[in-house]
Write a structure and sequence with these properties.
- By secondary structure, this protein is α+β, with helices and mostly antiparallel strands.
- Helix content is about 20%, strand content about 35%.
- It has a single domain, classed as Alpha-Beta Complex (Nucleoside Triphosphate Pyrophosphohydrolase), CATH 3.90.79.10.
- The protein contains three helices and eight strands, in the order αββββαββββα.
- Strands 1, 4, 5, 6 and 7 form a five-stranded mixed sheet that branches.
- Keywords: Hydrolase.
């Protein structure tokens, strides 16, 4: 994930200390029920699509923007499927971030899936029963997006 300019500005004064940031994940499904995934340039692994909203940008708009920027697929956000505070991440350069992830189920409405920026090595549509190897982060989000369950959150953290 490319570092947005506003985070570079924050880092200039905050150094490597923990930054609490919003994040969005977009699970895009086509009319055949396939899910859109990308193989990330930084990890070389298949992943769900995600990004960081710009200051003032609505989370759903960010999801739609990130999908197009990374895959050239146009989509609409349909519903929130999950909200979760993630564990802190320490990057190779020593920067520490913790994300509040809002995951959206999205519907593809146009475009042809292709690598559309330098953040992805590959993109593709996958049948749910033929997914490439994904981490638990992605699998949980796909499961929730496919269910009719209400928005997921960690009930143990609700007090």
């Amino acid at each position: 994930m490319a570092t947005p300019d506003f985070i570079r500005t924050l880092r200039a004064s905050a150094g490597h200390q923990l930054l609490w940031l919003p994040g969005v994940t977009a699970l895009v499904f086509d009319d055949e029920g396939r899910v859109l995934l990308n193989r990330r340039a930084d990890t070389r692994k298949w992943s769900v699509l995600a990004g960081i909203p710009d200051p003032g940008e609505q989370p759903a708009a960010c999801a739609v923007r990130e999908v197009y920027e990374e895959t050239a697929v146009r989509c609409v956000a349909e519903r929130v499927v999950l909200v979760q505070a993630l564990d802190p991440v320490t990057y190779e350069n020593g920067d520490v971030c913790q994300y509040m992830d809002i995951t959206f189920r999205c519907r593809a409405v146009g475009g042809e899936a292709r690598v559309n920026d330098d953040e992805s090595l590959d993109v593709g549509w996958f049948d749910i029963d033929a997914l490439p190897e994904l981490n638990e982060f992605g699998l949980l989000r796909i499961k929730q997006a496919l269910s009719d369950a209400p928005t997921w959150f960690d009930p143990t953290a609700a007090g």
